[in-house]
């Protein structure tokens, strides 16, 4: 069945088909007639095709095993293997190869059978050369178009697959919304980030996954004006996770509107997704880690990382706001400055790790005493500040102060150590003690220092007179530092006399300050300041050096039993290297340890009984004597007296004075002396001024006395002249 074509319809054979490596279409020609086979092959070669000849069907099948072709032109009637057999072989091994039948067989059944087997055209012999070439060109053109279409289809499929891969592999959630905000599409990333299946969200409004706090802001964002492709809506919101698998997470949303006129439609529902027309598309990027990092950086900027309390900057910010509010509402507020007592000793003794644990434990106790709205801050080191907004008056601040002091009185357990700390609290109220932030903090600090000067572990409200004292204090502090450099400190000695023989058996070293302008100053005038300014250790070291020099010389001159008594500050005793430092000083002066008696108060011992006990035992083993000063005014615990290597009890002068007045204090003296006898301890009574007191003490069996009865403390040159003599009354001393 041959279709006649006019010459004007004929197109010359083209060489643009680029199936072979050389750019030429490859054609297999099969015929059992050598003459026809050669003629057809020559015709095709003349038009630029690459032709392979196969004489008969059997040869064609062998060639197909090793070569591939774009087109096969074959006769139907051939011995051994006919054209249908070759077509069957092509169908199974090279299905992409087109087939044109060139045959003398013209029966309808033969033509129909060939076309059913996949032949693309049928040319009857004898053929017209131009018609045959036009047919070949047409068939190859169609095959090229089909291949190009298939190639494009495959590229589209790959592009869609790549698009799906990119969308589903995106680190962000990719979504589409309809005009009302319902999900049209969401990628699979939402499952790993929030726990939702994409299918369960499609058709639901996006507020379903918004955190309740962000619903209003999130839904308004899409309705806001000026949203466009060039100006997308960007906002940060919190999205809920499904169930309670994870916490709410932070996301940065970027949403673009979709222009219906420019959006590329497909054949599937005219651009609709899940039956809904997309009007917005966008991404949701998980920024939880960034937000957490920002929050941590912000926390670091305004909080103390050890205690988690607000730091100085945040405290001042809140105080500034509280002052503004108090001024508008005509209310009062209070600022407290808290300084821990004995913290430095614990920190130096047990180490900074234990010190940090103590600060955390102190913070927990302090926070339990506060009202809602109060601000406790760590100002630095062992200093805290407390803001009490909206108080009615002094009594509110007083009650809080008492609660804070009481809360810290109970011991703290740090590992195997039980330690005690106190707190000194200065209070400044608005507006009486200042109307600005800096004034209130400074005045609370001044009030706190006055608590320290009066013995610590208490509270005081700021008053204007404190500023005057503070000015004097600053001047005195400067002079005291200069006094240590200029050697203005003097050591005076007060004799300790045996009550039965009237012999001087010991000398208590007492410091005096020869101030260039104020004259001779006594310990009460400058020792509290020395403790506050941490100068007490250096001052005590100077006193001990001078006393070891003076008394050591008298011992070497023949007074071998003469005892030197020195009063040591808590800072010295509580220092980790106290024993080592003390013994080094004695060795430097060649002073015999058995002639030294150190005096410490009961409070020093009870602050840290375990550590102090160990130090005292070590000193006692080296020959140093231990005396308890001001006995009866502190804990007065028989338990610690029995456990520690104590040699002497010094009866406080307040009890001795009571003897003269016939008060109950005399009974306390009786009890102390009796207890000392029972424990085989020495007794030294301080502040003896009258015959009556001396007689009474002798009757009790008090071993030694000191006081104005035998004279005040005097310089070394005066004391040196009296040694070896029996001291007379004060006027004759």
From TrEMBL:
Keyword field contains Phosphoprotein: yes
Q: Which residues carry this modification: 4-aspartylphosphate?
A: 75
Supply the SUPFAM superfamilies for this chain.
Answer: CheY-like, EAL domain-like, Nucleotide cyclase, PYP-like sensor domain (PAS domain)
The record's Gene3D superfamilies line, in alphabetical order, gives: 3.30.70.270, 3.40.50.2300, EAL domain, PAS domain
Q: Keyword DNA damage: yes or no? A: no
Classification via InterPro entries? Biofilm_reg_signaling, CheY-like_superfamily, EAL_dom, EAL_sf, GGDEF_dom, Nucleotide_cyclase, PAS, PAS-like_dom_sf
Q: Which residues form the GGDEF domain?
A: 331-464
Residue span(s) of domain PAS: 159-211
Ranges annotated as spanning the membrane:
none
Locate the Response regulatory domain: which residues?
26-140
Q: Which UniProt keywords apply?
A: Phosphoprotein
What are the EAL domain coordinates in residue numbering? 473-727
What is the protein's given name?
A: PAS domain S-box-containing protein/diguanylate cyclase (GGDEF) domain-containing protein
Source species, please?
A: Marinobacter salarius
């Amino acid at each position: 069945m041959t279709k006649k074509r006019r010459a004007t319809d004929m197109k010359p054979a083209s060489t643009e088909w680029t199936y072979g490596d050389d750019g030429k279409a490859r054609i297999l020609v099969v015929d059992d007639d050598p003459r026809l086979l050669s003629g057809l092959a020559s015709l095709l070669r003349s038009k630029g095709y690459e032709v392979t000849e196969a004489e008969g069907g059997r040869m064609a099948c062998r060639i197909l095993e090793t070569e591939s072709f774009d087109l096969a032109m074959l006769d139907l009637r051939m011995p051994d293997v006919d054209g249908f057999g070759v077509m069957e072989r092509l169908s199974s091994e090279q299905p992409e190869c087109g087939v044109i039948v060139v045959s003398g067989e013209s029966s309808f059944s033969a033509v129909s059978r060939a076309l059913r087997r996949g032949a693309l055209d049928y040319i009857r012999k004898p053929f017209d050369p131009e018609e045959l070439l036009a047919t070949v060109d047409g068939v190859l053109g169609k095959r090229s178009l089909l291949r190009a279409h298939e190639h494009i289809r495959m590229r589209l499929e790959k592009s869609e697959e790549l698009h799906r891969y990119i969308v589903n592999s995106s680190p962000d959630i990719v979504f589409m919304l309809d005009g009302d905000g319902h999900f049209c599409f969401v990628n699979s990333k939402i499952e790993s980030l929030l726990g939702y299946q994409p299918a369960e969200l499609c058709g639901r409004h996006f507020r379903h996954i918004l955190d309740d706090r962000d619903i209003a802001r999130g839904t308004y964002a899409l309705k806001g004006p000026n949203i466009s492709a060039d100006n997308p809506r960007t906002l940060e919101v919190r999205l809920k996770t499904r169930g309670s698998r994870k916490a709410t997470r932070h996301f940065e949303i970027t949403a673009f509107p979709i222009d219906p006129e420019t959006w590329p439609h497909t054949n599937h529902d005219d651009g609709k997704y899940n039956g809904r027309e997309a009007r917005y598309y966008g991404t949701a990027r998980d920024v939880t880690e960034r937000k957490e990092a920002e929050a941590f950086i912000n926390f670091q900027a305004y909080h103390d990382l050890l205690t988690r309390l607000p730091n100085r900057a945040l405290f001042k910010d809140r105080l500034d706001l509280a002052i503004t509010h108090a001024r508008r509402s005509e209310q009062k507020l209070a600022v407290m400055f808290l300084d821990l007592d004995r913290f430095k000793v614990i920190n130096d003794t047990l180490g900074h790790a234990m010190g940090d644990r103590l600060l955390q434990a102190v913070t927990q106790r302090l926070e339990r005493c506060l009202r809602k709205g109060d601000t406790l801050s760590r100002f630095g080191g062992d200093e805290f500040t407390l803001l009490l907004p909206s108080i009615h008056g002094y009594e509110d601040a007083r009650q809080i102060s008492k609660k804070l002091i009481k809360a810290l009185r109970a011991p703290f357990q740090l590992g195997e150590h039980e330690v005690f700390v106190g707190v000194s609290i200065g209070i400044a109220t608005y507006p009486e003690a200042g109307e600005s932030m800096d004034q209130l903090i400074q005045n609370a600090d001044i009030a706190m220092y006055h608590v320290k000067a009066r013995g610590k572990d208490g509270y005081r409200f700021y008053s204007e007179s404190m500023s005057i004292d503070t000015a004097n204090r600053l001047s005195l502090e400067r002079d005291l530092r200069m006094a240590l450099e200029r050697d203005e400190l003097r050591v005076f000695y007060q004799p300790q006399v045996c009550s039965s023989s009237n012999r001087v058996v010991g000398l208590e070293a007492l410091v005096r300050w020869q101030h260039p302008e104020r004259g001779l100053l006594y310990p009460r005038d400058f020792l509290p300041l020395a403790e506050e300014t941490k100068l007490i250790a250096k001052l005590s070291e100077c006193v001990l050096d001078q006393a070891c020099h003076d008394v050591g010389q008298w011992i070497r001159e023949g007074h071998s039993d003469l005892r030197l008594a020195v009063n040591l500050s808590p800072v010295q005793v509580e220092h980790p290297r106290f024993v080592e430092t003390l013994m080094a000083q004695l060795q430097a002066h060649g002073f015999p340890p058995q002639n030294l008696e150190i005096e410490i108060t009961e409070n020093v011992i009870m602050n840290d009984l375990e550590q102090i006990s160990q130090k005292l035992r070590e000193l006692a083993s080296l020959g140093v004597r231990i005396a308890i000063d001001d006995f009866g005014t502190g804990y007065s615990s028989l338990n610690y007296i029995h456990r520690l290597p104590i040699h002497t009890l010094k009866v406080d002068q307040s009890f001795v004075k009571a003897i003269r007045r016939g008060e109950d204090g005399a009974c306390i003296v009786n009890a102390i002396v009796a207890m000392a006898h029972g424990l085989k301890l020495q007794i030294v009574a301080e502040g003896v001024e009258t015959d009556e007191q001396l007689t009474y003490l002798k009757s009790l069996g008090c071993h030694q006395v000191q006081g104005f009865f035998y004279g005040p403390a005097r310089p070394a040159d005066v004391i040196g002249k009296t040694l070896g003599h029996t001291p007379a009354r004060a006027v004759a001393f």
